[in-house]
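pasting for ref
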Amino acid sequence: MPVFDLSVTSLREFNSMLHSLAAGTNDTAFEVVNPRGHHAVAVGIDSPVTVDIRGSVGYYCAGMNDGGSVTVHGSAGPGVAENMMSGTVVIEGDASQYAGATGQGGLLVIKGNAASRCGISMKGIDIVVHGNIGHMSAFMGQSGHLVVLGDAGDALGDSLYEAKLFVRGSVKSLGSDCIEKEMRAEHIAKLAELLEKAGVKDVRPEEFKRYGSARKLYNFNIDNADAY
């Protein structure tokens, strides 16, 4: 496995290498050491590669990921996995604000806590947070799923569209137009699938409450979500 030491190799050089990989290459797994809080590590991946980052990162790690599997063995600054299209991003520690913002697909797993505005304007991404989330999370969430094993802060799901929110712990307050909804069989099944994908064990989907939009504030058709 090629190892990139960011105390020696420039971040631009590392990201450029990821963007220039030829189709069918045998080099599909990479390790990054000494990230030292660098911003924009492993951004713009557009092939099925695996990147293990040994340490904490700054802003916008794994942004615009499309098909890659990125694991941060530490914590991540603001905007991790922003605008992700597909693939998987795992944060072993905590994530700062607006994790997974505007994500259109893929899976983001945060094994610690997430700060404010987790999943704002989510457009199809699935986010699983093992810990707690901060205020204004899933603001204007259009589609996708936000799963929280811990507690949620103020104004959860404010101005929510059709994203589905599952919280196991307490919710400090719900945002405008966000209400608790019935957990039907299809929601239990989907939640069980997401928990399994995120490596969550010894937690039952029946322990969660579901929240969604009351549909009183917006003019929006979920069938046209790709156009927004």
